[in-house]
């Protein structure tokens, strides 16, 4: 009797550099690869609509990759740990492997599963597959989590070099017959009534192979110009964020490809700046690890007393759909709606406008991005929103209010980005601004100052 190995995939939808899959193939028994759509485990945030679209196509690509190597992708739906334990019982599995997650509820579920499996005589092991540096390994001299990015970044660079990627197995011995599996279509991850994903299909090629193609194009064509990444019309960013979010490419693969690959002289000069952004992702995960409620609670508790305004429904709808009368804000929100992403510089501008010009609680914007971004990430999304609000770790100063007009003048001087997404900007069809930028900025600064006085910080 054989005792197959189960590989439970979550945010690591790839065959290459997958430590859990590598361990399963090294064990030498047949392999069951399973993904569980978990909308039920308390504390684990269900995916937003845009992420579900991406997930459908990512699982399709992964299933094809596994089939080419001799294995199958098993799909289940329910509480993830419960479904994996059931699968282990049904198949007589001798081992279960997975790559670690870092949210508290996920960690608790994984720890309980590991205990339960081991008590039942099943080997259970977790691996470092999604972060270059485990959160508990990069700490201050006093043994506490970093609260400021720059010293965290230095500590990462001074620590042990991240491991090299594992090779993709050429063959995976699948179980025959394959375990019972859901039909992916039954999960209804794709929008139908209405089908709002036309722009997504035009913009994105999903899956592990696509992720590596995107990386190579970036290194060849855009990394040398990465210093101009703040200019949204030039679009010299990597476009890797959704692939990293779903683990179609690992940070280890990106790190070593950039550090050790053959690059042009111009690209080499920008490599450190790009990898610094990879470490920013690591920083947000370290913050999440220490602050599990990052998406719902202010990191800085003095912000609990901030006088958020009750958002006007019309203003909120105008912001969500790019009808605020502020061209750069509207361009960014329309880019998001059409493609599932937004240029990073513009993300900061639209976030500042919502929080500081409209005085809307950052959690409202974070939730909208969670639902509409294909790269909605449990650490980056709330971490970056709190950065803009001033309530987060290493946050922007509370008095920094991005002026969207000045930002457009500086970073979109020829209005290429704005006119691409707001073609009617110079016509009578374009609305008047929903708020006066100067007056609303002053009102926001007064509110921040009042909050600080009440907290004894002024």
TrEMBL record:
<feature type="site" description="Electron transfer via tryptophanyl radical">
    <location>
        <position position="385"/>
    </location>
</feature>
<feature type="site" description="Electron transfer via tryptophanyl radical">
    <location>
        <position position="362"/>
    </location>
</feature>
<dbReference type="GO" id="GO:0009416">
    <property type="term" value="P:response to light stimulus"/>
</dbReference>
<dbReference type="InterPro" id="IPR014729">
    <property type="entry name" value="Rossmann-like_a/b/a_fold"/>
</dbReference>
<dbReference type="InterPro" id="IPR002081">
    <property type="entry name" value="Cryptochrome/DNA_photolyase_1"/>
</dbReference>
<dbReference type="GO" id="GO:0071949">
    <property type="term" value="F:FAD binding"/>
</dbReference>
<feature type="binding site">
    <location>
        <begin position="375"/>
        <end position="377"/>
    </location>
    <ligand>
        <name>FAD</name>
    </ligand>
</feature>
<dbReference type="Pfam" id="PF03441">
    <property type="entry name" value="FAD_binding_7"/>
</dbReference>
<feature type="domain" description="Photolyase/cryptochrome alpha/beta">
    <location>
        <begin position="3"/>
        <end position="132"/>
    </location>
</feature>
<keyword id="KW-0157">Chromophore</keyword>
<keyword id="KW-0285">Flavoprotein</keyword>
<keyword id="KW-0456">Lyase</keyword>
<dbReference type="InterPro" id="IPR006050">
    <property type="entry name" value="DNA_photolyase_N"/>
</dbReference>
<protein>
    <submittedName>
        <fullName>Deoxyribodipyrimidine photo-lyase</fullName>
    </submittedName>
</protein>
<comment type="similarity">
    <text>Belongs to the DNA photolyase family.</text>
</comment>
<dbReference type="InterPro" id="IPR036155">
    <property type="entry name" value="Crypto/Photolyase_N_sf"/>
</dbReference>
<keyword id="KW-0274">FAD</keyword>
<feature type="binding site">
    <location>
        <position position="274"/>
    </location>
    <ligand>
        <name>FAD</name>
    </ligand>
</feature>
<feature type="binding site">
    <location>
        <position position="226"/>
    </location>
    <ligand>
        <name>FAD</name>
    </ligand>
</feature>
<feature type="binding site">
    <location>
        <begin position="237"/>
        <end position="241"/>
    </location>
    <ligand>
        <name>FAD</name>
    </ligand>
</feature>
<dbReference type="InterPro" id="IPR018394">
    <property type="entry name" value="DNA_photolyase_1_CS_C"/>
</dbReference>
<feature type="site" description="Electron transfer via tryptophanyl radical">
    <location>
        <position position="308"/>
    </location>
</feature>
<dbReference type="GO" id="GO:0003677">
    <property type="term" value="F:DNA binding"/>
</dbReference>
<dbReference type="GO" id="GO:0006950">
    <property type="term" value="P:response to stress"/>
</dbReference>
<dbReference type="InterPro" id="IPR005101">
    <property type="entry name" value="Cryptochr/Photolyase_FAD-bd"/>
</dbReference>
<dbReference type="GO" id="GO:0006139">
    <property type="term" value="P:nucleobase-containing compound metabolic process"/>
</dbReference>
<dbReference type="InterPro" id="IPR036134">
    <property type="entry name" value="Crypto/Photolyase_FAD-like_sf"/>
</dbReference>
<dbReference type="GO" id="GO:0003904">
    <property type="term" value="F:deoxyribodipyrimidine photo-lyase activity"/>
</dbReference>
<dbReference type="Pfam" id="PF00875">
    <property type="entry name" value="DNA_photolyase"/>
</dbReference>
């Amino acid at each position: 009797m054989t005792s197959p190995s189960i590989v439970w995939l979550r945010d690591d939808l790839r065959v290459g550099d997958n430590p859990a899959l590598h361990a399963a193939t090294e064990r030498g028994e047949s392999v069951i690869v399973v993904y569980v759509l978990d909308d039920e485990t308390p504390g684990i945030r269900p995916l937003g609509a845009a992420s579900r679209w991406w997930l459908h196509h990512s699982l399709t690509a992964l299933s094809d990759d596994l089939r080419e190597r001799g294995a199958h992708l098993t799909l289940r739906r329910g509480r993830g740990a419960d479904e994996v334990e059931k699968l282990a019982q049904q198949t007589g599995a001798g081992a279960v492997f997975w790559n670690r997650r870092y949210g508290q509820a996920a960690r608790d579920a994984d720890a309980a599963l590991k205990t339960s499996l081991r008590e039942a005589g099943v080997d259970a092991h977790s691996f470092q597959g999604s972060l270059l540096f485990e959160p508990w390994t990069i700490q201050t001299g006093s043994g506490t989590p970093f609260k400021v990015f720059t010293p965290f970044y230095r500590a990462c660079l001074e620590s042990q070099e991240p491991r090299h990627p594992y090779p993709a197995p050429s063959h995976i011995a699948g179980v025959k017959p394959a375990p019972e599996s859901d039909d992916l279509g039954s999960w209804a991850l794709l929008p139908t009534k209405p089908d709002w994903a036309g722009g997504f299909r035009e913009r994105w090629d999903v899956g592990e192979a696509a992720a590596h193609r995107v990386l190579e194009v970036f290194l060849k064509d855009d990394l040398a110009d990465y210093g101009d990444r703040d200019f949204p019309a030039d679009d010299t960013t990597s476009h890797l964020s959704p692939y990293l979010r779903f683990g179609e490419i690992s940070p280890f693969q990106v790190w070593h490809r950039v550090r050790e690959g053959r690059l042009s002289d111009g690209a080499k000069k920008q490599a450190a700046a790009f990898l610094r952004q990879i470490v920013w992702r690591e920083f947000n995960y370290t913050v999440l690890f220490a602050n599990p409620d990052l998406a719902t609670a202010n990191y800085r508790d003095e912000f609990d007393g901030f006088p958020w305004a009750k958002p006007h429904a019309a203003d909120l709808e105008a912001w969500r759909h790019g009808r605020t009368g502020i061209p750069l804000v509207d361009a960014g929100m329309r880019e998001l709606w059409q493609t599932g992403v937004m240029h990073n510089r513009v993300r900061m501008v639209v976030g500042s406008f919502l929080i500081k010009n409209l005085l809307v609680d950052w959690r409202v914007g974070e939730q909208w991005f969670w639902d509409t971004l294909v790269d909605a990430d449990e650490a980056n999304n709330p971490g970056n929103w709190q950065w803009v609000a001033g309530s987060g770790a290493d946050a922007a100063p509370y008095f920094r209010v991005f002026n969207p007009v000045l930002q457009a003048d500086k970073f979109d001087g020829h209005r290429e980005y704005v006119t691409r997404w707001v073609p009617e900007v110079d016509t009578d069809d374009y609305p008047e601004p929903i708020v006066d930028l100067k007056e609303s900025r002053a009102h926001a600064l007064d509110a921040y100052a009042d909050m600080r006085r009440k907290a004894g910080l002024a």
